[in-house]
Amino acid sequence: MTRKKPTAANPIDQTMPLQLYRITQNIAVWRDAVNQAESTSNPNRTELIRNYNDIVLDPHLTALMQSRKNKILSKEWNFYNEKGEEIEELDNIIQQPWFVKTLEYALDSLFYGYSLVQFGDIINDSFTSCELVPREYVSPEGGVVKSLPNSAYNQGKPFNEYPYNQWCLFVGEKKELGLLAKASPLVIYKKFVTANWSEFAEMFGMPYRIGKTNINDTQAFANMKKAVQSVGSNASAVIDMEDVIEFVEASKGDSYNVYDRFIERMNSELSKLIVGQTGTTDMGKNRGSDDVHQNVADEYGKRDEWYLRAFINTKFIPFLQNLGFAIPKGAVCKVEEEDEFETKELAKFATDLLKYGTIEEDFIMKKFGVPFRQFAPTTLPVGGQGAKKLSLEDKIQNLYSQIHSCSVCNEVEQASDGEILFQGLFSPNDLNDLLMAIYYGYVTTAKPSIGLYKAYGMVFEKGINSGIEFALEFGKPDPLMLEALKDNSWNFAAAKTWQFTKDIEAQIVDELGDKRTFKEFLKAVDPIGNLYNKTWLETEYNLSVSNSQNASQWDSFERDKKVLPFLKYQTVGDARVRDSHKRLDGIIRRVDDKFWSMYGPSNGYNCRCMLIQLEDAKESDVLGLEFTENEVPSAFRFNPAKKKRIYPKDHPYYEVSTKYRDDKNNNFNLPIRP
Question: Residue 192: in which H helix or E strand, if any?
Fold first, then answer.
């Protein structure tokens, strides 16, 4: 679909562009701005927006706002029909930058009170642009876009009327000023105290230079002034021989604490205002209430999710349908829900887990409604981490154990392609330096290694490029899909880096909780390094190759399905083929059949199966064809091309406790695809 936007439907073009200069903010200025915004005769938010533009420069406030938005924007949203079935054909809409940007503008309305989003032309089912109408020109009370920021509140272009409402979308409430109205005094006080602290540091943090001379002697005075000013940049004075300058400081030597604690208090108040708590954002000595803080953060996240879901389904979807987007009637968009067990299955699963360790008491209460208290563990702590649980290593080994295993392959000890690539990007010396940095606390899960992250990311990206190159005979892949696959691989690299760091950190202390010597530490972490950087890396690299190849090939299936409407599942046919994959061998279904979303290759780590496109064939009967979790893991029951990802979303690398959930939402404290 292609549709040209009428020139008259562009409210930004109807405004006279003026720079909204920043001015010094104080409490009086803020109060006047609020009064102007709340005026009943002529409400004007220009000064309030000027105030907001200034306070959002505060790093702590910026981080809080971004953290709250990331908690929702990092989730996977999908369209569902009236039967609750996922509409995979609409995944392309969700992946569009304009869709994500619109959701971010909608969340910004919680802070600013409102957002007015203007869309551009539609070309190939996608908007060419999505931009925010500057808030100082928007009057929510009058429902207009003003030509000048200080124009009357009801004079301008009505954005809720034709033709503007065809291409503009308003989010927010008429009278709502947003959370920044409450945050402003906190930031203003904080800036004032910070400025005073800077002045305090200038006065008492560096020694003064005082030169005494006969100030009545012009030449002597000039020479002394030049001398004291040339020594350094700190304050200086030239006084008469009899004059005295006295600096009276507070009697306490820790006067700086007055400033430091005030700023800390303002930061904690901002944290409470924006995210409802301080435990997941501010440093503190008492971490005993982590779960309470995390639960509050989760409640805020749930509320924001509901807010965004209501916006999408009641405003955004009808808006898109009105413009001609092929979204079925009754379709809704919501966050993809985690797979839920049936009660009996969950009970059995929980019972089986108890063989390996413990289960949090609140999990039993939430899932079964039964009060439960565990017996105190009698085993010694392992690595300072408490009673032994099913470890990350166990989970990944179980997952990767589904790969074929034979004596021939096990006897081959040459380095894999993934390992060779990794060693070229991250040498043994680099690894040794990293281990030393982790041991001494310079690298932590809060600040993981960028170098290791880049090495993992480049290995996976090279795997994708290799898979795409192999599949070029089917045609060039969709560039947007290719970029999405690479984004997913870098996110996976971030999760792997974080888990590696956490596992290494756990070995700093021994089984009794005593700190190991560095030599003992190196010996303890050596097996971990082999797992992450050899054994597991080989499997993960191979998956990047095969899934990118399958995704690229699927692109060609979609292009050619009118001429070649059938697909046939085909194994390699050698002795290494898994029994479950042999059962899939030879199955024929149409390209559009949902069967391929469940059982199209890859169907496990190191899966070598493929699909063959056919012009004419008889469809196979797949009624009753089912596979256990061990035969075809649920993590692989997705189409890499449609879902635009290489790695399963429920891979153990992504499993973190509630304490570290913000790390996960912030790309594990690493940059997004550097």
Answer: helix 180-204
